[in-house]
Amino acid sequence: MGKSLVELCIFIQALVKTIDNVYDNDYYRLWGGITENGGTMHVTRVLVLMEKLAEVVTDYISYKDIQQINLRRNNIGINVLLVPTSDMMEWNFTSAVGRKRSGRANLTLSGSVLIDTNETFAIPDKSAITFLNFDSLHALLSASGYLVERRQVINSRIVGLSVDMPAMEPLSVPLAIRFEHFQAGRNPTCVFLDTVNEHGLYNPSGCKLFEHTEDYTVCQCSHLQTAYALLMDVTEEVQAEKVLVSPLTGDIVATTLVTGTLGWYILLRRYMSSHGHVVKNLLLCLVVAEVSSLVNVIEEASIKAFLTDIKELCLVITVLSHLSVLSTFYWLVPLCLQHYLDVLSPRAESPWWRYRVLGWGLPAAVTGVTAGIQYPAYLGLNGKCVLPVDDNLIHAMTAPACFAVLIATTVTILTVRMDHVISKNMKSAVTKKPRMDKIGGEIWRTCVLAILLCIVWPAGYVAMATRSTAFKNVFGISNMTLGIYIAMFLGLWSQEVRIAYGRKYKKIDYLVEATPRPVPKYIP
Predict the structure, then answer these.
(1) In terms of domains, do 153 and 292 share one?
(2) Residue 119 neighbours by CB under 8 Å, 6+ apart
(3) Could you tell me which of 205, 179, 187, 182 has the C-alpha nearest to residue 107?
């Protein structure tokens, strides 16, 4: 070892400081020479410094026998792995230097390509692999005249790698680079920064496009380089369609109003009938659904990058959203069954264990089975923590929800027919009219609630999954309308709430002759 440990540490610190200042993102406009020759001279300087840094960091961890070291400053990131050569055949190495924000790029390398099967070189006991991350170099190069004239940008961060023993090229297993996009673009081109190529800095030879989506691009390269980049044509700016009510605004309004209404039902729960307790459970599901959808309607790149990185958290949010929305639809069935029970036998005990099985048990079973079977699909949502509408996974939501709405509609029709028959046989007009008004009003409120739910959540899932402007408008407006409707007709103007309020605070014992309901035993 040519340098002592102290000398290596000092040298590493000096190199990091130098590179960090060479292309500081806040001051890159001061470098007037960047635009000359497409930025080749500047890039060459940075890459040479990074290669030197990788070399001395490798010497450092070899000297200290450290398995891994991560080095991070403002504009650079280095992740060095020291691995036993005998284990490389079975390993895939993935870079861990990308920050948890938009535009990250990560590499995956098969360890088998680093093993010299022909034994051309002496194989050491341990080998070092260095992953390099350039946080601001893309900003410097995108400002160069070469890319501006061609209306191209580097649409992700630049990454690369360095190994301490030569690999046989072309690689038997291509190097995979996953670039996450900064902005919308088209015609992606996978390149590496070639500082010795007289035909240009951006060299596509040996690299090909493997996968391309709206959010990311995967490239495969048959050689190892210090810097890989993704070139894309700039998408012509078009005037975005106007969003009348943003999904975020609608979600916040709906969450606030539904939560306030639920608060009244919880506060007055001891004085409510079974009908009120069913509504309370439905509102609870709806609040959870609204809160879980907040994550998906916030247009913030840092949050999306965080959720993309922490896949388990995104899975929890997706499952919670699936369960709560499905439970909201399934609690419509007990609500309609309670209407039927009120018509047929107003003083009968409500079958609460059946209600709980319908409202909570069935949705939980559907959600659990779906998450268990499609676990890999949940982990591949890329920051969109909602069931994808272009995949069979969405049928785990639509099919059970449609079934619940069908059952609720059937029960409602039977309730209306039963109420009509009973009211027709009543001889007293004094009793007949209040009864029809009472039952009819509750059924109409439930029908309107079901219609609003059938508009809000299908539109919401499409808006959250596809970012469609039309569906954003529908989701924002309908969700706000749903919140206002619930606050008014299930809250302020609800006879259930007014009767419970009078019993608790005014000590009034209401007698509703039309549909007398006993106050049940306390239902938590």
Answers:
(1) no
(2) none
(3) 179
Rg of the chain's alpha carbons, rounded to an integer? Answer: 32
Residues 6+ apart with CB under 8 A from 411: 333, 336, 337, 339, 340
Q: Tell me the per-residue pLDDT of 375-421, one tens digit each, with 9 for 90 and over.
A: 776 665 555 788 877 677 888 899 999 999 999 999 999 988 887 78
| Span 408-466, pLDDT tens digits | 999 999 988 887 787 777 655 545 555 555 667 788 899 999 999 999 999 998 888 77
The answer to whether 53 and 75 are in contact (CB under 8 A) is no
Query: Domain containing 91: what range?
Result: 5-234
Q: Are 243 and 476 in contact (CB under 8 A)?
A: yes
Separation between Cα atoms, residue 264 and residue 287, nearest integer Å: 14
Going through 333-408 in order, the beta strands assigned E by DSSP cover none
Largest CA distance in the chain: 109
Q: What is the DSSP string of 185-251?
A: EEEEEEEEE-TT-TT-SEE-TTEEEEEE-SSEEEEEESS--S-EEEEEEEPPP-PPPP-SS-HHHHH
> Rounded distance, CA 80 to CA 418, Å?
75
Same domain, 171 and 308: no
- Cα distance between residue 158 and residue 137, in whole Å: 7
Does a structural domain hold residue 511? Answer: no
- 218 with 345, same domain: the answer is no
Residue 310 lies in a domain: yes
Does residue 516 belong to any structural domain of this protein? Answer: no
Fill in the DSSP letter of residue 344: H
Residues 44 and 75 in one domain: yes
Amino acid of residue 285? C
pLDDT at 72 over 70: no
Residue 215: per-residue pLDDT: 82
Confidence of residue 245 (pLDDT cuts 50, 70, 90): confident
- Report helix, strand or coil for 63: helix
Q: For the whole model, what pTM was predicted?
A: 0.59
C-alpha distances (whole Å) from 263 to each of 11, 267, 365 are 63, 6, 28
* Whether the predicted pLDDT of 154 surpasses 90: no
Residues, the chain, total?
524
**Average pLDDT for the chain:** 77
Both 230 and 273 in one domain: the answer is no
**Confidence tier at 509 by pLDDT (50, 70, 90):** low
